[in-house]
Specification:
Layout (H helix, E strand, L loop, with lengths): L14 E3 L1 E3 L5 E15 L8 E7 L9 E7 L4 E8 L27 E4 L30 E4 L6 E7 L5 H7 L2 E7 L1 H4 L11 E9 L30 E4 L2 E2 L2 E6 L1 E8 L6 E5 L5 E5 L4 E8 L1 E4 L4 E7 L7 E6 L16 E12 L22 E13 L6 E6 L16 E9 L5 E5 L3 E9 L3 H11 L3 H16 L5 E2 L11 E4 L3 E9 L4 H6 L16 E5 L15 E3 L3
Helix pairs in contact: 3-4
The structure holds CU-O-CU linkage.
The site of CU-O-CU linkage (C2O) has 10 residues, from strand 7 and strand 31.
Length: 566
């Protein structure tokens, strides 16, 4: 039967403090042990418990999403990640993807990535740094399960999730994800935003399907089964889960709340709005605060994107407010079709007006560097193109610039510099591009003209090796003639970000910054424009689309391009 909505109360995930407090009150590095456990999780009152893979400080405390890690700016958090998963996956894992192969050995490859974190690549969760239970098998880039996050970055919202090559999408679907905050009380408290556990909450959203016995459901037959028996480019579930509960409710007071909303879906976009005319006021996005608050009536949130918003329930005319989404799946889908509005959760608003000491100031963090294109030392063109089986629409793989993940590294930025990236989306779906380590500012987005000719060039170069690939890109570049319509970048997305939604048939111009956002911390370490660690040590960093839209989440098929520093 169908699950009734708004039956379960929105939980808060357990908090793990990512710092220690020494005698005398000084903050010292935090030491955490986080395991990945095979356990059960209740997604709805009327649904039997679901077998999941969950992060936790112990099996008993493991949750989906995992615990929220709260770190302090400038105070390192050391996490030792351990894998306690069984020999076999609970979801269809397609071994035809040249993935984290364990040969004939049993075991589930995992590796945790702190998304938005500025850390050495040996602690970045490189997709080939995976390991199975008890470290029985390890990937070629595995060095140690003890990761260090320096947290020498601006305060904001991050998240951690599995990142193993070829099975990220199933590991995340099984439950391996969680929220992470970098807090900086000295800079944040004076803002006066809603604070404390009751009024400042993480909201982690994703979609899932269940069998009637409570098991997670994922179609076990691939879209293109003679190429990949089980791989499906996208996953869409009909149940919307917030903090681990299907369509929960939250009792709120008539005052301001802060919600740090993460879309942790594999492929579903959320276009969120509130019933009854309530608005959002955006105060932050991926990783960092905005310079100034941005009010919206609704906004689009791609997989892996974060919106940090304040909602004031004092003005509500109703005692129930629904958070809902009307984004088509896949996104943007057929322009002629209207998408269903799906409920996300309900707020039950208290009747009496409360004294509210919180506020949203007119300026938040205005002193972050302004994007300056004159800083760019190189311009790169990065074309996303989806290859299909001859004569069909069925995708077999998606490459960036026609190159596979295993091909030689092509993006080799230098530490301390910025680059212009022209990201060209030749697919039919919106692709949220994510770059590790760096942050970027979106300068503009324009429609491509003659996109079919560009696609023809890419198709032609597909089989030609590196030379063919370069020719394909050059051929496409000669013809693409960007100059079509300009698309507005929403105001809440004009700050520094680590994810950008690249629309189909457009080119987005990003200024990518391969140096810390905060110059002062760099100066403190005596190295201006440098990261507080050796960026050249380790396997390097990756960039990729974050959707299983028409390919996967971080599967083999995306060129998880490595950005290696020289
Ligand atoms: Cu959200 Cu490569 O990661």
């Amino acid at each position: 039967g169908r699950l009734e909505k708004f039956m379960d109360e929105l939980p808060d995930m357990p908090v793990l403090r990512g710092y220690g407090v020494a005698e005398g009150g000084n903050l010292v590095a935090g030491e955490l042990a986080v395991g990945m456990y095979d356990t059960m999780w209740k997604f709805h009152r009327d649904l039997p418990a679901t077998r999941v893979f969950a992060y936790g400080a112990s099996r008993e405390t493991a949750t989906v999403p995992g615990p929220t890690i709260v770190a302090m700016k400038g105070v390192p958090t050391r996490v030792t990640w351990t894998n306690h998963l069984p020999p076999h996956h609970i979801l269809p894992w397609d071994r035809s993807l040249a993935a984290a192969r364990v040969g004939n050995a049993a075991g589930i490859p995992t590796v945790a990535h702190l998304h938005g974190g500025v850390q050495q690549s040996t602690s970045d969760g490189h997709s080939m740094a995976w390991f199975t239970s008890g470290f029985a098998t390890t990937g070629p880039h595995f060095s140690s399960p003890a990761y260090e996050y320096p947290n020498q970055q601006l305060p904001g919202n991050l998240w951690y999730h599995d990142h193993a090559m070829g099975l990220t999408r199933v590991n995340i679907l099984a439950g391996l994800l969680g929220a992470y905050r970098v807090a900086d009380p000295a800079a944040e408290a004076p803002l006066g935003l809603p604070s404390g556990a009751e009024f400042d909450r993480n909201l982690v959203l994703f979609d899932r399907d269940f069998r009637s016995d409570g098991a997670l459901f994922m179609n076990a037959t691939g879209n293109n089964p003679d190429v990949h028996p089980q791989w499906q480019p996208e996953y869409f579930g009909t149940a919307v889960i917030a903090n681990g509960k299907a369509w929960p409710f939250l009792r709120v007071r008539r005052r301001r709340y802060r919600f740090r909303i993460l879309n942790a879906s594999n492929a579903r976009f959320f276009r969120l709005s509130l019933s009854g005319g309530l608005r959002f006021v955006h105060v932050g996005s991926d990783s960092v605060y905005l310079a100034r608050p941005v009010p919206t009536e609704g906004f689009l949130l791609a997989p892996s994107e974060i919106a940090d918003v304040v909602v004031d329930f004092a003005g509500s005319k109703h005692d129930a407010v629904t958070l809902r989404s009307d984004a088509p799946a896949p996104y943007p889908g057929d322009p002629g079709e209207k998408a269903d509005t799906v409920a996300v959760m309900k707020f039950v608003v208290g009747s009496k007006l409360e004294h509210d000491p919180s506020t949203v100031p007119a300026t938040l963090m205005p002193r972050y560097p302004k994007p300056d294109t004159r800083e760019a030392v190189v311009t790169r063109h990065i074309a996303m193109y989806e290859y299909t089986k001859n004569g069909t629409d069925e995708p077999t793989h998606l490459y960036l610039n026609g190159a596979a993940y295993t091909d030689p590294v092509t993006e080799t930025p230098r530490e301390g510099t910025s680059e212009l990236w022209e990201v060209i989306n030749l697919t039919d779906d919106n692709h949220p591009l994510h770059v590790h380590l760096a942050v970027f500012a979106v300068l503009k987005q324009r429609s491509l003209r003659r996109v079919d000719e560009f696609r023809d060039c890419m198709r032609g170069g597909a089989s030609g090796g590196a030379g063919g690939r370069n020719d394909a890109l050059a051929c496409g570049m000669r013809r693409h003639l960007a100059g079509g319509r300009r698309h507005v970048v929403p105001r809440q997305e004009r700050g520094w970000k680590n994810v950008f939604k690249v629309r189909p048939s457009t080119v987005a111009t990003l200024l990518v910054r391969f140096k810390p956002l905060e110059e002062s911390s760099a100066t403190a370490s005596g190295k201006s424009g440098r990261f507080p660690f050796d960026v050249t040590a380790g396997p390097g960093y990756v960039y990729h689309c974050h959707v299983s839209i028409k390919q996967k989440t971080i599967a083999q098929f995306i060129k998880l391009c490595q950005t290696v520093f020289m």
